[in-house]
Design goal:
Layout: H1 3-10, E1 61-66, H2 73-85, E2 88-94, H3 98-110, E3 115-119, H4 130-145, E4 151-156, H5 159-167, H6 175-191, E5 195-198, H7 202-214, E6 219-221, H8 228-236, E7 240-243, H9 251-259, E8 265-267, H10 289-300, H11 304-319
Parallel strand pairs: 1-2, 2-3, 3-4, 4-5, 5-6, 6-7, 7-8
The protein binds zinc ion (ZN).
Protein name: DNAase
Pfam family, one: TatD_DNase
InterPro entries: Metal_Hydrolase, TatD-like
């Protein structure tokens, strides 16, 4: 899909959805959708998830890939606070460009230990000009020199922009995108920071080659999709993937979860990106990762409680986050 379509679907326009669309009877969030976001609420429990014998122990999880700065400005605080009240221990706030990096740095300062920022340049958009690119890299280095916690991301390759251009018979020059990703991989290696990647299908193979060239070992392929060979390649390198709420209805994602080692999986929403299935018409929120946990548990044949604990441990290990269960 085009950058425009991508941004529109991702909600970059900031257009709020109808409030009534959130509260659907019969969905897991129906009972809490009407509550004030400021009021602390009881987190969900293993008992509430239908796991026998483990009632009242809170389940916690994380959203390992959220575009929190793409929500309306006055919506971000309530969105995060409600998520934290519902058992989301951390969100990784990925960036689109330098302005987005700055907004996420501010949110990370406001919610230390809970909002973990990732700084980069999203690949499904035009490339930065030389001056903008230098300013972005200098700014990231300054965060490193200040000793701040962060990862590199969202960075990667423009699969959807490229394939849409090629499908329409237009030439697409991927080389400058490869060069920028190569520079981010080099930076991640130099600063010893984990990297959050947008690289799907054959682009994941290209990204793997770049990571290898720079000796980057801590890589997270967000919302990963790919061939059997690429899945095997990522697993062999011990790279992490993350799963979105589409695990509810996408057979390929369910099969990926079945095959991928549990200890290398994280949960995410890529919010405000909207989902279908039981989430159609609802605003994407970080606490939707609770449903992702339940689907992964069912596919892996494990309890929701042990799955939540494992997935949270993975995210904390990968991003270097602290927590009582970590
Ligand atoms: Zn993203």
């Amino acid at each position: 899909m085009s950058v425009k379509a991508y941004e529109e679907k991702a909600g970059a326009s900031g257009k709020p959805q109808a409030a009534g669309a959130e509260a659907r009877p019969g969905t897991p969030e129906a009972g809490v959708a009407a509550a004030s976001p400021k009021k602390p609420e009881k987190p969900e429990t293993a008992g509430a998830s239908g796991v026998p014998g483990v009632a009242e122990r809170p389940l916690v999880w994380m959203d390992a890939h959220l575009h929190v700065d793409l929500y309306d400005e006055d919506e971000r605080g309530p969105l995060l606070e409600r998520a934290f009240a519902h058992g989301v221990a951390h969100v990784v706030a990925v960036s689109m460009d330098l302005a987005s990096c700055m907004r996420n740095a501010e949110l990370a300062r406001r919610y230390p230990g809970r909002v973990h920022p990732a700084y980069g340049w999203h690949p499904e958009q035009p490339l930065p000009d030389a001056e903008t690119e230098e300013r972005l890299f200098a700014w990231i280095r300054a965060r490193h020199n200040a000793g701040e916690p962060f990862a590199i991301g969202e960075v990667g390759l423009p699969y959807y922009t490229r394939t849409e251009a090629e499908g329409g018979g237009r030439r697409f020059d991927e080389a400058p995108y490869i060069r920028l990703l190569d520079r981010f991989a080099a930076l991640a290696a130099e600063l010893d920071r984990p990297i959050a990647l947008h690289a799907v299908y054959e682009d994941a193979d290209k990204a793997c080659a770049l990571l290898e060239r720079h000796g980057v070992r801590r890589a997270h392929f967000h919302w990963f999709k790919g061939s059997d060979e690429t899945i095997a390649l990522l697993a062999a390198r011990r790279f992490y993937i993350s799963v979105t709420p589409d695990v509810e209805y996408e057979p390929d994602i369910r099969e990926l979860v079945r095959r991928y080692p549990l200890e290398l999986i994280m949960t995410e929403t890529d919010g405000p990106w909207p989902f279908e299935g039981s989430m159609a018409g609802r605003k994407t929120r970080p606490e939707m990762t609770a449903d992702v946990v339940r689907h992964i548990a069912a596919i892996k044949g494990l309890s929701a409680e042990e799955t939540a604990a494992a997935l949270l441990r993975n995210g904390r290990r990968f991003y270097g986050l602290e927590g009582a269960d970590g």
